[in-house]
Write a structure and sequence with these properties.
The protein is of the alpha+beta class and 539 residues long. Helix content is 19%, strand content 41%. It has helices at 2-19, 26-86, 201-204, 217-221, 448-451, 464-472, 510-513, and strands at residues 97-100, 104-107, 113-127, 139-155, 159-166, 173-181, 188-195, 227-235, 241-249, 262-270, 273-274, 277-289, 310-311, 314-315, 327-328, 332-348, 351-364, 384-385, 391-402, 409-411, 416-418, 433-444, 454-455, 477-490, 493-505, 525-538. The strands form four sheets. Strands 3-4-5-6-7-8-9-10-12-16-17-19-22-24-25-26 form a 16-stranded antiparallel β-barrel. The chain has a two-stranded antiparallel ribbon with strand order 14-15. Helix 1 packs antiparallel against helix 2. The longest helix is centred in the first third of the chain and has 61 residues, at 26-86. The chain starts with a helix and ends with a strand.
């Protein structure tokens, strides 16, 4: 529109300029020129005004465009803020993860972990009194078998640890207490501390996962228990086999520090998946040198110290509810012993089978081996110097079946039983897992080397006949027929019921149980009934 005004004004001025020569009258011509000059001035003023208005219009348009741009920017920011508000904010990554495995387990990405652990085993039951034997430890009893608290976990660099303390029956004892090291991408594990010295599968397995209330009696008799030591293990490809060797002191971490006893041990296990299930075959060996228990005298000179290396093997009747042992070798002079064990097991769905055997050979002293002869063992009036190296044997075989279709747990690579994962726990409306187990055990602690060995009972005025009866009562044979029912309410809570018929031949109680028998003491037979239950909880 401004351009049109300018064109019109110029057109008027031109038309006036062209018309002026046509005026003949000079006065009119002068008047016309003055009028034309005035009009030109007006036109110039009008053009200036138009230019001013155009500038103002351009400024207004620029401001409008700027305002529009700011509005669009503000709208975009608002939309972005709205979208950001609608999108969920990702929380900050926690410093550690928490998993539930019976108790909270804390872990970090860089390899730290910590988990509290513990167990409670509460036993109740009865052990019958055979024949004429009376003992306050027999009959009904209630016992807190285990109360353990501890922790386990890992550290960066392949380091692991485990520490447990047992507080049962007002005593404090150290259970597993060790550190381990497994280099990255290497099949080697080193352990140092207090743990089982490579015994058989049942002894090494946690008491939370064994099938009966108590382990096989040969473990009790042969003194298989935790020791202070170190091992190194090598796992084969796919965890199909494991070889482990170790060196231990003759004592555990919480016992007195015997001066020179030691144990060398080894275990080899093969764990293939075959025959539609999981198989386990193993062999274990221990060479044990007893502590010399030197007392009195000096190491040189005529006053020699007494060296009292004594062995004793005995076992309870498949129950810790009594202190009575129906089979017992008594103390005899021995430098040490060796144990060879075989293991076999298989898991086929709800069915499992297992068996173990161990042979123990003691390295007995002979009369005259020491300068002081049998007097070196005078601290025990019933101590025997055997005529040769006594040998003993123990073993068991068992079959178990889950009526609910569950499967017994097994830790492949370690060669031990592990936690049973309950398919339908009671907490989810299920029946839990119900398992029935049958087992036969045999323990032979009788050996002629002890029966015929020299004893110093006669020094106290004991008759030769009584002395013979004492020797015949050493050791004994024990057969156990056991049945058990285990009800797993969930992975961490189990109720157990065991019944056992224990048949004994000979042993230190035979003469008391059947005093009227005319048979030699080591040929007298009697039986004991054992019924016991357990409430077990672990985490």
């Amino acid at each position: 529109m401004n351009t049109g005004l300018r064109i019109s004004a110029v057109a008027v001025a031109v038309s006036l300029g062209w018309a002026s020569p046509a005026l003949a009258n000079p006065k009119q011509d002068a008047a016309m020129r003055e009028e034309l000059a005035a009009m030109r001035a007006q036109m110039q003023a009008l053009a200036a005004r138009i230019d001013s208005l155009e500038g103002q219009l351009d400024n207004a348009k620029a401001r409008a465009e700027s305002a529009e741009a700011r509005a669009a920017s503000a709208l975009a920011e608002a939309e972005s803020a709205k979208a950001a508000a609608a999108k969920p904010v990702k929380p900050a990554e926690p410093a550690f993860a928490v998993n539930w495995k019976g108790s909270p387990e804390l872990s970090t990405k860089d390899g730290w972990s910590f988990k509290a652990r513990g167990r409670l085993h509460l036993d109740a039951g009865t052990v019958s009194s055979p024949g004429a034997l009376t003992n306050p430890s027999l009959g009904g009893n209630l016992r807190v078998r285990r109360v353990r608290l501890g922790a386990e976990g890992t550290m960066p660099g392949g380091i692991g640890y485990k520490a447990e303390f047992d507080f049962a029956n007002s005593n404090v004892a150290i259970a597993d207490f060790f550190a381990s090291y497994s280099p990255a991408n290497a099949p080697i594990t080193v352990r140092v501390g207090n743990f089982e010295p490579l015994d058989g599968i049942e002894q090494i397995t946690s008491s939370n996962y064994i099938s009966m209330l108590e382990r096989a009696t040969f473990n009790d008799a042969f003194l298989n228990s935790r020791r202070l030591g170190a091992t190194i293990a090598y796992k084969g490809k796919g965890d199909e086999w494991r070889a482990e060797a170790g060196f231990f002191a003759a004592h555990s971490l919480d016992s007195s520090l015997d001066n020179d006893g030691w144990i060398g041990a080894g275990r080899l296990t093969w764990m293939p998946k075959a025959l539609g299930g999981q198989l386990h075959l193993g062999v274990n060996y221990q060479y044990r040198d007893f502590a010399s228990n030197i007392s009195g005298g000096t190491s040189t000179g005529a006053n020699m110290p007494s060296v009292n290396q004594l062995a004793r093997y005995r076992a309870r009747p498949n129950s810790q509810l009594t202190d009575v042992r129906f089979v017992d070798t008594g103390s005899f002079a021995a430098r040490g012993d060796s144990i060879l064990g075989l293991e076999a097991a298989g898991i086929f769905g709800p069915l499992h089978v297992a068996g173990e055997a161990q042979w123990l050979k003691a390295r007995g002293y002979r009369a005259g081996d020491l300068a002081s002869g049998t007097d070196a063992f005078s601290n025990s009036n019933s101590a025997v110097v055997p005529v040769s190296n006594p040998g003993f044997f123990g073993g068991y075989g068992e079959v178990g079946y889950f009526l609910t279709g569950d499967t017994r747990g097994y830790k492949r690579g370690d060669g031990t039983w592990s936690r049973t994962k309950v398919l339908n726990p009671v907490s989810k409306g299920g029946l839990g897992a119900i398992q029935v187990v049958g087992r036969y055990e045999y323990l032979d602690l009788a050996d002629d080397a002890l029966v015929n060995g020299a004893t110093n009972n006669f020094a106290n005025g004991t008759s030769a006949l009584a002395g013979l009866a004492t020797r015949l009562g050493r050791g004994g044979l024990q057969s156990s027929y056991l049945v058990g029912v285990n009800w797993y309410l969930n992975d961490y809570l189990r109720l157990m019921l065991n019944y056992g018929r224990i048949e004994v031949q000979g042993g230190p109680q035979a003469a008391i149980v059947d005093p009227a028998s005319t048979l030699p003491v080591n040929q007298r037979n009697y039986g004991v009934n054992v019924l016991q239950s357990r409430l077990q909880f672990d985490f």
